[in-house]
Amino acid sequence: MTHARIIGIGAYAPKRILTNAELGRMVETSDEWIVQRTGIRERHVADESEATSDLALKAAQQALDRAQVEPGEIDLIVVGTTTGDMAFPTTANIVQHQLGCKSAGSMDVYAACSGSIYSLSIGSQYVQTGKYKTVLCVGAECLSRITDYTDRGTCILLADAAGAVVLRASDGDAGILDTDLYSDGRYGDLLIQPAGGSRNPATHETVDKRMHYARMKGNEVFKVAVRMFGDAAERILSRNGLTAQDLALFIPHQANLRIIEAAVKRLKLPMDRVFVNVDRYGNTGAASVYVALEEAWTSKRLNPGDLVLMAAFGGGFTWGAALLRW
Ligand code: UT7
Description:
four-stranded mixed sheet, five-stranded mixed sheet, 11 helices, 34% helix, Peroxisomal Thiolase, Chain A, domain 1, alpha/beta, 13 strands, binds oxa(dethia)-CoA
């Protein structure tokens, strides 16, 4: 069977680091509270000159270089993002042009923080079906641009980064083995950027009411996320005749250490088989799983033949899981 194999991986985070201590000077919070409730110690934020496509481009270029793939070999670019440079053209289109992928189609996937799993799933289907040979999947966000730095419930979490993988058709055992995507629009109000779209176009009033920032009912998101996350992980494992004990590594969406720990407890996995970098990155939305995968690889936590589970959840609600043989 043809698998979509990851032949190159890249990641990029802006240089500027925003610490908990700095946030403590902006809103009523503390390093102690943030670490205890989220596990986050610091996060990267873009400077004024950087937009999402700039981050995406750096991660994608690194993935291409490591894969030793020329831009002209890319057949399709799929970018998961909720904070594209603008409403249109798509961020994928901008990346396509900047990279010089002259024969690539391109699309953005809007699935909030599940954009990593969604983009990977879409990209891998094109490869597995034989439609395309080489696909670039990216997750990129400038969540700081939709963060209200007067709202302590969200500003401590959200951050900026990008990650990318190059997928290529392979007849070997390694590659994306399976993916699952889920959504449930009943939970739309729990995490929402209310203005800037066709429902509430940008007006002075929407700006004055701070409606262009992400709003979240954190505690409710937390409860739904723990349940969805665990369900998705268990379902993809059982459909493939596997248990969590077969996993070499679990790479969850890095939103909150407590959510990760709850999911891991349910899976009965020891924490040394779980990749965590939320402490240094915060929640980077659709970039999160890609950035964690890249760090897992560069820190030699991934070995050939390893079975890896990735899972993410996000606003919408959207969630999903992907099973990978490294
Ligand atoms: O990718 C998906 C994106 N979203 C998430 O994954 C978010 C999931 N949710 C969370 O991570 C957590 O719900 C939060 C970290 C946002 C909040 O933690 P929590 O333990 O659920 O706290 P809470 O919302 O139940 O609030 C408890 C208290 C409240 O004060 P009162 O009403 O008890 O007086 C909040 O106002 O903590 C207060 N609080 C804070 N205090 C200090 C909320 N945020 C902060 C803060 N610093 N940053």
